[in-house]
Amino acid sequence: MFPLSVLDLVPIKIDKTPAEALTESLELARHADKLDYNRYWVAEHHNMVGIASAATSVVIGYLAAGTKNIRVGAGGVMLPNHSPLVIAEQFGTLESLYPNRIDLGLGRAPGTDQQTWRALRRDPRASEQFPQDVQELQRFFEPVREGQAIQAVPGANLNVPLWMLGSSLFGAQLAAQLGLPYAFASHFAPAALDEALQQYRHLFKPSDQLTKPYAMPCISVIVADTDEQAQYLFTSMQLRFLGMIRGQRGKLTPPVDNIENCWTPMEKAQVESMLSCAFVGSPTTVTKKLQQFINRTKADELIVSAGIFEQSARLYSYRLLAEIGNRLKHV
User: Fold this and answer.
1) Domain count of the fold of the chain
2) pTM, two decimal places
3) Which residue range forms the structural domain that includes residue 177?
4) What is the pLDDT of residues 75-91, one digit of tens each?
C-alpha cells in the first residue's frame, strides 16, 4: 500500500455540536486504523466555529486513546502561539502515554486572525523567532545535558519526531536546513508546491532524525462509486472555501445539487485555484489522478483531507481510498 494518512479538520457541521464532531473524528480515526492508514493528524485553529480542534494536544490524546496502531499527531501546532517548553511538555506527555505513536508537525502561521492572536496573548512578532523556537523545542526532546537548568518533564530524551509544515518556500528551506520531514499544505494553498518540493530536496541536510528528504503533500480526496456522486459530495468543500474567500468561516454545510448557482465566475476561479489539488471521482478516476500527482511530485506519502458532510460517505470515501492505495506506485 502506498503510504496514506488522514488530515482531519474535525469539522463541525451545521446541525452538530463540537462534541458530536469529536465523536465522529474518533470514529473516523478507528476506521483509518483498521484500514492501515499511516497517521492521523489534527490541526490547530482558533476562533473558528466550524473546527473543533483548537485544543490540539487534548484532541490528539483523545484519538490516541481510542485507537491502537495508527500514529496520531498535529498537522500542526502553530508554534508562534506557544512557548517551546509547553509544547515539549504536552507532546512529551503524549509520547509517554502512547509510545512511538505521536507526531508533532509545526507551523509558523498563527492559525487565526490578528484579533484572536491578541486574545491568545501572543506578540505578533513571535513568528519571526520561529526557526529558533523549533530548535529550542528540539533540544527539549534531547537527553538532558550537564548543567541544564530547564527540562521538559516529560519530554527529555523522548525524541518525538518533528515535521515541518508549510505552504511557501520558507517552510521548505527550513525543513531542509534542519533535516526534517516536510508536509506541504497543497489542500488549500497549492501554488508553490512544485518549487517548494524542489528546494526542499535540493537543500536537504541529513540530521539525526532523517537521513534523506521525506515529502508528504496534503491533498483533498473524495471518492464515491461514481464521478457524479463524488462531485456532489465535493460541493460541501467548495462551499466551505467559498465562505473563506468571502470572509465567512462557518460550519460545514450539506452538499448542493447545483454549485454554479452559489458563486460568481470570479469566485469560482478563486475556489478552483485553491482546490487544484483536490481529486474527486470514482475509484478509477481518482486512481489515475493520484498516480499522476505522485509521478509529478515524487511524494513519499500522501496525507488526505476529505470535507464530506455525511459521516457514512466520509467513512466510505476513506475505505475506497485505502483500496486505491494498494494500486498506487512510488516513482
Assistant:
1) 1
2) 0.95
3) 4-218+284-308
4) 999 999 899 999 999 99
